[in-house]
Amino acid sequence: MNNYEQTVYHELIRWRRNVLKRSGLFKQLSKKTQTKVNDMIPEKVHSMITASIKSMVKATLTGSEMTTNKKAAAASSLFDKDTWLKEKCASYRKTAVAEGAGTGAGGFFLGIADFPLLLSIKMKFLFEAAAIYGFDTRQYEERLFLLHIFQLAFSSDKHRREVFHTMENWEFEKKNLADMDWRMFQQEYRDYMDVIKLLQLIPGFGALAGAYANHNLMDTLGETAMNAYRMRLLVFPSQDYDY
C-alpha cells in the first residue's frame, strides 16, 4: 500500500465501526413505531407499494445505465478515483438540493413528487460511482451491488448490519443472490425517509427542509458509495460481528 491507501485503510476501519454501531434512542423508537404501523397495513397495500418501487427503481436503473459515461478510471489511482467521486457527489448534491427546495416549496403534492425525483438522482449518481471505480454495471451482479450500497445508506440498524455483512463478503455472497428482496428494500427506504422528509410536506417550511434533507441524504450516499468501492479495491479482511 502507498501512503494514501494506508490512510484510506484506517478511514475504512472507522467507517465500518460507524456503520455497525447502533443508532440513537430516537431513531430506535421511530423504527419501532414504523414497524407497528407497517404491521397494520394490509398485505395487498404492501404488495402494491413493493411493485411500484420495484418498477420505479428498475426503470431508473435502465435510464441511468444508458446515460452513464463509462470511459474512465480503471487506470487511475485510488486518490484520483476518490477525488473524482467527491466532485461528482458535489455536483449531484447541488441538483438534489435544488430539486428538494423546489418540490418542498410546493407543499404536500410537490413534496410527494420529490420521492421519485430524488430516487432517480441517487441511482444516477451510483452508476457514476461504479464507473469511476472501474466496475461494469452491465453485469447483473454489479447492479445488485449498487442496490446494496443504496440499502446500506438508507436502512435501519439491523438491516444495515445484514447488508454490510453481505457487501463485506461480496465475492462469496453474490453467488447466492438471485434478486433483491424488494419488499425489504422499499420498506426500509420508506421508513428511513419518513422521518427525514416529513417536514418537507409543510407549506412555507418545505423548501428549506427539502433542501437540507436532500443535501444530507446525498452526503450519506456519497460517503457510503466511496467506502463501499474502496472496500472492494483494497485488501480488507472481513470480521465476525454480533448481529
UniProtKB/TrEMBL annotation:
Origin superkingdom: Bacteria
Pfam families per UniProt? EcsC
Name of the featured protein: EcsC family protein
Species of origin: Lentibacillus halophilus
Q: What is the lineage of its organism?
A: Bacteria, Bacillati, Bacillota, Bacilli, Bacillales
